[in-house]
Amino acid sequence: MRLSLVCAATALGLLACGAPLAGSLRRYSYGPPAPARPPGCPLAVIPGPAPGPGPTIQPLAQVQCSYEVDSDQGLCRDEVRRLACSVGADSIAGIVESPGLVQAEAVRAVQPPPRVASAPPLVPSNPPVGAPEPLPGNPPVGAPPPPATRIGGPRPLPPRGNPPVGAPPPAVRTGNPPSPPPPLGNPPVGAPPPAVRMGNPPSPPPPFGSPPVGAPPPAPLGNPRPLPTGPGLAPRPAPMPGPQLTQGPLPPRPAPMPPSGPPVPPPPLPPDPGLVVPLTLGRADVLAGMVLVKNQVQFCLRQDNITEAVTVAVEIEGTGRVVAAHVEGAIAGTSTASCVEGAVSRAMFRRFSGRNITIRYPFAPGTAPAANATRLPTN
To answer: Which of 60, 90, 109 is at the close of a domain?
Structure first.
């Protein structure tokens, strides 16, 4: 998708005019698409490289915008945010800002699926048909007791009505009925009263740490025990004298000794490697400059279904800027070649002090820049 802006009204009501901008996005298929959000939606910025797909993060698309004038970089940032909102993102990560290009990854946070606890297996109440009978032994824990079995057959019940002939008459209870049990808390009738302790109550135990009754008092801590003396013991040495305090000013300090020879200057600091300008560019310098435009070149090749490597002749001046870029091969002069040349023209390299150099650099669609770039002689 290409977007051309000549004069566009900004969100603050101002009129901004600039060179054409190109915004594009490439959707991912890591999950279901998210609903689009309105332009200007709030987006969080995740520092560092773009995170991969996980249980709590879903990459949605790669959004980017290219510009030709440095003053349009802010408009390109707004275009990247607008594209991220259009795919339903709530954050952007992996932001890459190079001369002429603003690129980021549109992601959104997702909730992990809740964990459902598995139910215990159901135990059938009745055993299945054909199941083996349990071995005799102790019943399992929690099983009901087996029914009681009467030994010797059932006992016959006596007939209802008159008692049998010759049976003794039923016993009849005579006298007073038994008295009910006494209520709880009252002593039984006729029980002796509880014993009552006479005299003073026992004294409480002494507090912890106090000396027992009748023990001699402890010796005072302020008076040390005298040292033993006798004819066979050496006399106690006299105490060492302490420092004496004097009144008056302190004595002057001695003057420092002058140096015996000339002063030695400190060694010079080594030059900063970042300030040293090389004579020409090395292989690492060329790779570092081409990495900044790799994604834009691959985007140009993929949108026109170019599957073969493309070689670009690039002329670089001493300031590190690209003077000219020309695509070689079958696609020279096509719209794809113009897209690739415009992307390579925005590359920036390290400064060098020599003359302009020209290199031939191959780009493969969908892969990193090749490391076998060759240099042509300067025209």
So the answer is: 109
